[in-house]
## 1
Amino acid sequence: MNKVNVEHELHHFLQQKFGFTEFKAGQEEVITSLLNNRSTVAILPTGTGKSLCYQFFGEYTKQPVVIISPLLSLMQDQVEQLRLQGEKRVVALNSNLSFQDKRQVLEQLNRYAFIYLAPEMLRNEAVLAALLQLNIGLLVIDEAHCISAWGPDFRPDYLQLGQMRHQLGDPLTLAVTATATKRVLADMTKLLRLPASFKLVQYSVDRPNIFLATEKLPDEQTKKERLLSLLKQLPGPGLIYFSSKKQCDELTELIQQKTSLHVAAYHAGLSFAERYAVQQQFLTGQLDLICATSAFGMGINKTDIRYVIHYHMPQDLENYVQEIGRAGRDGQQSIAIILFNENDRFLQKRLAFNSLPNSDELELYQQSPAALKSASLESESAYLVTRYQQMGISFADMEQIFTQRRTEKLRALQQMLAYVNYPDCKRNFILRYFDEERVVKHQQNCCQLGEESYDLQQIFANVDQVTNNLPKNTPPSRDYRQVLQKLFRDD
Amino acid sequence: MSKVSEDNWLLFFSTQQARRPAVLRQLLSKRLSNSTLFWGMRYQWLAYINLCPSMDTQAFDQQIKLLCQQKMLLKQDDGTVLLTADGQACQAQLQAEHSLAAPQVFANYRVYDLVKLLRLLVQVASEASWKNARYYVAVDDFECQAVLKNWVRAHGLRALKEQLVTELKKFLALEDPQDAWIFCSQFAGHETVPATTKQVAQALNISQRAVELTLLDLNSRFVLELIQTNSPLAPMITHFQSKNALYQKSQKTLTLITRGFSIPQIVQRSQLKESTILEHLLNAAIFNADFPFELFLSNTERQLLGKILPADIDQWQYSMVGEYQAKISFFKYRLYAIWRTREQSER
């Protein structure tokens, strides 16, 4: 088949199976590369539909796809997205499954077309044996940047993926991530043991339709007041990110009290049912905004989010770029604002370092396995030590790794602070950080230079304000009979 | 997921009887020993076994401490607590809000998993009735999905919808209309997005705690009704029956005793220690109203214990048996306490 015919067929399949008329940037390139049997690294910005690449491959070639995914919530979102598209042969093998359920899934693994796996699952012999029985069409490493200790989201479980990949017979592999510096990319390819012939598909992290702004505020009170003032001016819907669940809840209450906006909190402290409710209300336009921690957003495809505000400065630019990428997926003008207060610097440093054990803790845990066991239930850093131990990493090596992690986290935080304080074009700062060679020409609606003021009315001058007529917040009827009537159609 | 919030602990305490919070903690989280069961019986808490299976026990202890600091509870030197006048006023308010009418369901079924199952049943039946094949599934539980799939394979989606609608209408018709609406607000389905408990509380101007308790109450009673009426949906519910090993072992020992086996014979047959068998029997005495006390306690022994122990059973200690300990073992002493408690409550 010639190139034109192949393109035509791929587009036809895209429309038929997924209902889209066009591929998003990078998707076709990735799919074509995989269909040519070339392992591929795809660095595509948030919102470009990275998961479609492997879903397409699986559906098109009718071969099983195994996806390694680092976070339970991310995995669950992707499973549900696939089910939503009508694909029922999908399963997530993770710690949410009971022993019996896991056994049942493993016995029937060949029934599934898409198998999501937590990385630690690969250490389970039964899982590995079941995977070896499969003729894996494609191995996907989602959030592949987690493999690099130079990156901010390093996950020790990812270190073994190269070896596991080899044990699985070096299958065709797709490593996907939204952001990666050159150093992280080099780690990814080396540690995953990708063949030298691998294809790199990389698109810019730049999202030109998102105006970038940072505001320095002297204290917490002023920050709250500025937030409320912004919310009264900004067109919705919107997202506000917090680094603390407690403040997320508090500010949700405050916004409810001081504005007429319909708002709900979303964080890991809520049950799955509550998070589902909030997410669906947001997607169906019943909420104007969500106050969230980083638990929110994975797999959420709401195209008309107009603003993303960071009430706390994030720990690193990688996460910042991911989170602001939830805005403006419809291509319309949007805005990303960081409300910065000096205390954020300490908050983030504390959060970054708390998750890593220091030398004293390591010494204690080495001397007293009982102390490590009991601390692992409560402390993130102790849990990390246990995980490293399970992976056979010595305490001496751990000390080295954690020292490097601390240095890396501090460096990332300093870069974030440099971004907040940057006097020139913020967009170019981000591009440079991610080693992009492109330089954009600063213009109106690009970003706020330094601390100059910016005019929201002017930024959003061309945005059509869509008023939705959906009922807000509470279900429309308080009569249970009407709820039942709406739920179930009479025959 | 609905939960039992900390304020509700006040519902379990009394101004008259000093009670041990640790017993409540162990019962609610189903960490059962014979001592826990005995004191649970004394405090009339046995219906609440397994109400909070995934309870954060450290948080529970902190919450009790906080209630003491707030002077809702008064801590005694022996670790027991009494409800204060303020606590009693708060308890009365809580009692007026809502209560669990069938808490015993929690001991026998995994109610929190059943809540997920109900939500899944409603969503699947709803979407199917509107012929929607693609929707975002509200329940991420493999076990619930597998149970439902098996049922649907045998009976079909149409039967699911018809049966579920019939059962829901029948059950909700007898409920307070506001409670019925709260119950329905948890469901996702065709063009229906669930509300959070906080949103429901705000809409009705009631406390979030009241909404959570209403949900737990109606969910547990609905599944109980499905079982009791032998509904075609019941096999899905009974899949979530708790494995009650303690109860089963106790019943097995009791059966052997009533068939005439002696304790040494049971020890030999079961390869268990005598102390374990005696604990099974004490548990059986707590669980079974018709336990044959006469097989283990003679009239003379009862009279003797009646003489040497004070009237208030809560004050008893085995050391009070004193010089008679050679004749009256701890097993007999505890059995007598169970018998007297039964006798008191039957009076």
Note: DSSP finds 17 helices and two strands in chain B.
## 2
Amino acid sequence: MSGLAERATTVDLLALGDDALIAAQRLAEWVSRAPTLEEDVALANIALDQLGAARMLLATAGDEDELAYRRDDRGFRNCLLAELPLGPGRGDLDFGWTMTWLLMLSAAQLLRYTDLAAGADEHAAGIGAKAVKESTYHLDHATQWMLRLGGGTEQSHRRVQEALDGLWPYGHELAEGIRDRWLALVEPVLAEAGLTRPADRWRPDGGRAGRHTEHLSFLLAEMQSLHRAHPGAQW
Amino acid sequence: MTSDVPLWEVFVRARRGLAHTHAGSLHAPDADMALRHARDLYTRRQEGVSIWVVPATEITASSPDEKDSFFDPAADKIYRHPTFYELPEGVAHL
């Protein structure tokens, strides 16, 4: 951990990388369980894009395996949204919940990667430029489903609105510093989908400082167990 | 759930100058989603520069029972085949 503290310039990269890594692990829960085979492939693609971005970002911030597999929850800098279950409770998998989560997350990632691509650091700019294209697609995928679920049946509308109400508070930490630009991406989608944009009330945060929900520990236990049982294991 | 979702036929153009070729089929609720799924399923290894999706129900296909009357008469009409021409050097797609 001392190596991380010395490299203050990589703090943003670490946060971005942790968002992508934890999001990839979460999305992987859908593999073999999506509503259609086509959607299964789409979600796995998005998860792999997230993992690819995470690897580049973490490898820039330090040793990617050390960072991914040897930190405990207090060492992770991801926003709380990334680690939340993809449904109302732990172990749940809800499609409307997942698309709402992906809309919020990918809109923020698109903006942060765009900024990274425009930055002075050539290496980081290259990572940003590659990730921008992927995030654009993730945002589009989530948008398409939000429009269909929001404007679909009474049940699909109700469930995606519940997801939005449940996840909205976590958008504050997610889009800290880019809130206006983030709202400009997300709000038109909600309006077109006929969804009610929740009021801004509770603003949970702490993820960027390593204070996480109980959900992250469970996620890490699954993600890190192999590496912890067999340190340095390779394919 | 898949059975409720319409089937789409996917055509992919491998590169500029070539025709769209049938790549396969998929399920999607509408044309826009079909296009996006086709991107994930059929162009993930850079197979294409353009995609068409067509509702499978909109395709009128010849019947296997009609094979004889449809295709066999063409077999003995060799003048329909451009076999009497010298192919110029360098013609790739004829």
Note: Residues 1-10 of chain A have pLDDT under 50 and may be disordered.
